[in-house]
Amino acid sequence: MDIYGPSMGALSSGRLPEPLPESPLPILRTWFDEARDAKDQPNPNAMTLATIDPDGRPSARIVLCKHLHDHLGCAVFFTNLDSRKGRAVEANPRVSLVLHWDHTDRQVRLEGPTSPSPDAESDAYFASRRWESRVGAWASDQSRPIGSRQELLGKLNAVVDRFGVDVEAASRGEPVEIPRPPRWGGTRVWFDRVELWCGSASRVHDRAEWTRELTPSEIEGAPGYAGSAWASTRVQP
Length: 237
Ligand SMILES: Cc1cc2nc3c(=O)[nH]c(=O)nc-3n(C[C@H](O)[C@H](O)[C@H](O)COP(=O)(O)O)c2cc1C
Known about the structure:
Elements: H1 25-38, E1 46-52, E2 58-64, E3 67-69, E4 74-80, H2 84-91, E5 94-101, E6 106-116, H3 119-128, H4 131-139, H5 149-162, H6 167-171, E7 184-190, E8 193-198, E9 206-211, E10 214-219, E11 222-227, E12 231-234
Helix pairs in contact: 4-5
Flavin mononucleotide binds at residues 43, 46, 59, 61-64, 77-79, 83-85, 142-143.
């Protein structure tokens, strides 16, 4: 008896199209937007970023995807460029990202090289952050040791004084001028491998990967990558 057949679709929570589309990016965009619009988790744009330290050790942590440039095929996160991840990326620009949306039973794996965001992208995002976050970016030498929390609070107060922040006015929502720290900015992750995974109630999950060649190229006035056409492969789950 054929237990597994086309009628099993009714049990599935999701399916990848058959045949696979030429590019994975429209599906990625849809999944990303659906996760955001569902409003059922605080950070639907949270992704695990895996890097390789200069000594060859892997390291992973969560960062937020602040832009998904589907027309370019890259995702952007922002961070302190002298943090552990920043130093890792400088030594080995190849990274891997994982997004997981539990409510829709979807996982995305993105892999590829990085490049620094154009200054305009980093400036625009930094300016959009709450003033407390902008103070924090100056005060925290991310990933470096500190003696006590009190010491950290002292560093935050010193930044408030340095930029003459009127905290009462800032709390009323008045504009606060704090420039972007020189070693804080965006990192673009250019995809040369994308894997889309969706779970199925029948446990016959759906999984496919797309790969392409990337060539270093000037993109929007900054170093980036131009991509070849994608090659797609359905993969056993
Ligand atoms: C939900 C969540 C979102 C985060 N987003 C960021 C982010 O966008 N950028 C960042 O630098 N750190 C972010 N962090 C903190 C990182 O996970 C990490 O602790 C920090 O960047 C230091 O990592 P590193 O020492 O490996 O560089 C986030 C943490 C959580 C839990």
